[in-house]
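Protein in question quoted in full.
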Amino acid sequence: QVQLVESGGGLVQAGGSLRLSCAASGRTFSSYAMGWFRQAPGKEREFVAAIRSSGSITYYADSVKGRFTISRDNAKNTVYLQMNSLKPEDTAVYYCATKRPGSSWFNHQPTSYDYWGQGTQVTVSS
């Protein structure tokens, strides 16, 4: 069982950058693959990025590829999302989550993730 707390959201202008953090409590954090999701008003929760437990393998949604970078520091029980070249369409509440052990690496639907943080708001102005 893991508890997750996101932080680092805020208001930025288009083209700016933010780094989100997700701090995890739980002794088995390093065993979980982790993901970032986002949900904008009136839209479904969508996948953003995922990282394997080792941190050596990552995957990104096409909409953020080349702009966002997911990373983790298992010694600090923290996963990060570095967001560069932000666009107004990136505005959303961002969530981190643990991927279900045994679920396919190629399945990044929200239903394949078990534990979720409370979310942090990212607003990008034009």
Q: What stands out?
A: The mean pLDDT is 96. The first strand starts at residue 3 and ends at 7. The radius of gyration is 13 Å.
